[in-house]
Amino acid sequence: MTPKEIVAYLDEYIIGQNDAKKVVAIALRNRYRRLKLPKEIQEEIMPKNILMIGSTGVGKTEIARRMAKMMGLPFAKVEASKYTEVGFVGRDVESMVRDLVIASINLVKEEHQVKNVTNIEKYVLDKIIQKLIPPLPKGASEQKIEEYEKAAAKMRSRVESGEMDHLKIEIEIIKRPLEIDDSNMPVELAKVQETVAKVFSGYSKGDSKKEVTIKEAKNLLRTEASEALLDMESIRQEGLKRAESSGIIFIDEIDKVAVSSKSQGRQDPSKEGVQRDLLPIVEGSLVNTKYGSIKTDHILFIAAGAFSLSKPSDLIAELQGRFPLRVELDSLDEEVLYKILTQTKNSILRQYEALLKVEEVILKFEDEAIRALAHYSQKANEKTEDIGARRLHTVVEQVLEDISFEAERYQGEVVNITKELVKEKLEALVANVDMARYIL
Length: 440
Known about the structure:
The chain is built from 18 helices and 11 strands. The chain is of the alpha/beta class. α6 packs across α9 (214-229).
């Protein structure tokens, strides 16, 4: 996708923030451009890491998450405040790279499952048919074989259609050695634990038999089919390679590890340590994972923070230099909040309409009511903490609480959400700052 196409896609989910979208779109396109270059130049071109500055709820995480999902890229979101320097209690900084590798392998595995869906479904159906119609003994006559094949084909179509889902069969569950996917655990310790688990699973009896419905059997056997039909080793290697060349790590709350120049002394001695531990990861180093080593040179790092109590310049100079692209996100005004409610692809209003449709309640939001929701959200943000678009969730929930609670009363009806209803539910709350702090 070209940068313009990327921005157009992001516009469906995120209103405004064009500067941030543009920077992210160019960074993505540059990854594609780099892969088209000769090998020797590829190695020299490093990703330009991005620092997003903006208050909570303005779309920082959403831009990065949507972008990764759209391009099918390995993506890991972490909070900088979880990390502490070596010697303090907390996660070690390298675990973010191990998180990315696990996400990448899962992404590749899903792709391979989609490609092999026909073979996987055939494997599952064959196993279930064998339980429902035991195979013929060797040396059976041609007539018997023909009759068996007809019966099996008929049974297959019934199982496939879900007609037999309620029946119970006994299947064998293959015992697999325990896999430890704890990215915070040191690689050596994880390998030791897995070795011990394999030893104990070797001593335990073989596959266990379990009586389940055919519907449950389908799900259990799909996992078995994936293990049997997919080359897990090549999937792991491809996942490792993809994380290395096109992975994205989103480091949220980077401002929480900045040491403000205004603070008297060092409130938390681990903050600067975290920054120093981040340096080699962001700059490019070799990180060991249980699936193999990964170079972080070409991973794109996007850091984000509100920087309300500190400034980007409060980060250590070396780390600032590793995030050359900086973009400031705008605070959300009333008009933007209105557009978020009406123009985004899966807006919160559409979500509530879909949820209550399950109860046969048809919600209709009048335009004036939507403008009132945006207005009160903006007022609540001004009077209390500014939490951006997240305020919309609180405000809409407050308005629809009674309707949602007594949905059976409105079954089969069209419920109009009017400006008067919004005013009745919210005006007193927003006017009272103390109440707004606790309720909205």
